[in-house]
Input
Amino acid sequence: MRPRRVYETVLYARDVAATAAFYSEALGLRIVDGPDELAAAFRLDDRGVLLLFDPDRSGRPGRPVLSHGSEGAGHIAFSVGEGELDAYAEKLRSRGVEVERTVEWPQGGRSLYVRDPAGNSVELVEGDLWPP
Output
């Protein structure tokens, strides 16, 4: 018995609304809850969930779930369809988002890296970067 997949991932942002706007508007993720002062939630096509939390509010004791939080930039990588990476780069640039780096991986995949408004590293991956 072992876990089957990552169900949810959390990134932290002190300005949840601005960061949620990035994920919904620049990347096209479907928001399913919020944003409010504490959090926002997005549902991905593979049924996974991306959560954005304010690290100060989520770290307070006495919450219904365990308190958690993080300092500094996090990282998330989204898989995109074959042939879509260049279109994402253009869309992001047209919205004033700097593409910090693009990488052609030895295995044949490609990545581009940007920052969300909270400073988290966001990677878009075309192809497969890891061994099966």
Observations:
- Strands lie at 8-12, 30-33, 39-43, 49-53, 75-80, 101-104, 110-115, 121-126.
- The mean pLDDT is 93.
- The first strand starts at residue 8 and ends at 12.
